Amino acid sequence: MKKMMEERIMKLKLKVISLCVLAAMLAVAAGVLYSCAAAKVSAGELSAEYESKREGEVKVADGFTDAAMKFYTELFKSVVAGEEKDENVLVSPLSVYTALSMTANGARDKTLSQMEDTLGLDIDKLNESMAAYIEGLPSSDKYKMSMANSIWFRENELTVSPDFLQKNADYYGASVFSAPFDKSTVKDINKWVKEKTDGMIEDIVDDIPPSVVMYLINALAFDAEWETIYNKNDVSEGVFTTADGKEQKVEFMTGEEDKYLKLDNAEGFIRYYKDRKYAFAALLPEEGVDIADFIASLDAEALSDSLKNAASELVIASIPKFEYDYDTELSKTLTSMGIVNAFDPDKADFSGIGTTDLGNMFISKVIHKTYIAVAERGTRAGAATVVEIDTESAPLIEHTVKLDRPFVYMIIDTQYNLPIFIGSVMEIDD
């Protein structure tokens, strides 16, 4: 089985595919999918009624990059803090950020202000910045970067605001589906998710509780090849020491990189994908620095500065081949970050989404699933986030960086240096 998996990975291009599903379980069931091309589903598609009507040019607002990096860093830190010491973590902060931004278009009063404070921008600037950022993400025949969003809502139970749907169509390209929220809807949503993640996330919804009225779903896919593909001579066996001190025999891929990263208590490197529009960045804490303590100490500004100002110095960099999947529920994490009322059935105000007789709408769950495999030709990754809204119920210096103990890594866009994925490797799964 392991050999078959390795052969499968070897055949892959350098890929990172992420799906973020934000499913909002409201007192009324509704679902949103932002998609470049909608999958064929049995649910009633209303996308033709809500095509983008946006006029004028959108641009990234001043402060967007700083706001996004702060959210991304805090999200990652909070997720890691809630896990066991030896748990590998992988999140797609861009996916979660996008899903929450879409949801915020239906929030009002204090619920909205808390979401704006946590996301770092007011809703108008957030919408424009996200639209400009997402539409500006490079994609070509050498590398693929695509995003899909959708809204699914329970037919006959929720009267959805046309303004809510239109804004998410204008700024996020969200497709809209009216569905019975029965077994056929579960099948349709999972089919859509599977398609948008190239089969890496097959099931995001097991069943739909009767109180759920809406799902907002974001899917992110990245597919690229390393700028320099590792050959057989670049791969050698070595030892990876896990977070709990266990030694594992793994295969390391070694190459020369030209960007060196340095933080107060860590060093690392940047390895580029073709055309250098995207990159893999890794940070290795210094010997004696606990990985959990290192992650807890991460500062968004310092991390951003390190990525933007990476030194042009030669790095002999070794990356272990690794593969794992990860899933988590983010409601407690997001509450701790400041989004409080949205998860409270008594205090949440999502009246901007629409009206229902079922009770007050609130977010009951935010489910996030990810997958990653890193091998000679590249990286393959997938992510899914579901937010459930429910009712009341240059080389002068040479460095050597071998990722042979727990480390942090990111897949970043090189224009804004924002992580599309950010994760930590505590051990190498067999």
Q: Topology, pairings included?
A:
Elements: H1 2-11, E1 15-20, E2 29-34, E3 44-45, H2 64-81, E4 89-91, H3 93-104, H4 109-119, H5 123-136, E5 143-154, E6 159-160, H6 162-172, E7 174-179, H7 183-196, E8 213-224, E9 235-241, E10 247-257, E11 260-263, E12 266-272, E13 278-285, H8 291-296, H9 300-308, E14 314-320, E15 322-329, H10 331-336, E16 354-355, E17 362-374, E18 379-390, E19 398-402, E20 407-413, E21 419-425
Parallel strand pairs: 2-8, 5-7, 14-19
Antiparallel strand pairs: 1-8, 2-5, 2-7, 3-7, 4-21, 5-8, 6-16, 8-18, 9-10, 10-14, 11-12, 12-13, 13-20, 15-17, 17-18, 20-21
Describe the structure.
The chain has 430 residues and is of the alpha+beta class. The chain has helices spanning 2-11, 64-81, 93-104, 109-119, 123-136, 162-172, 183-196, 291-296, 300-308, 331-336, and strands spanning 15-20, 29-34, 44-45, 89-91, 143-154, 159-160, 174-179, 213-224, 235-241, 247-257, 260-263, 266-272, 278-285, 314-320, 322-329, 354-355, 362-374, 379-390, 398-402, 407-413, 419-425. The protein has two domains: 2-225 and 323-390, Antithrombin, Chain I, domain 2 (2-Layer Sandwich); 232-319 and 397-425, Alpha-1-antitrypsin, domain 1 (Roll), CATH 2.30.39.10. Helix content is 26%, strand content 34%. A hairpin with a 4-residue loop joins strand 17 and strand 18. The longest helix has 18 residues, at 64-81. The radius of gyration is 21 Å and the shape is globular. Residues 1-41 have low confidence and may be disordered.
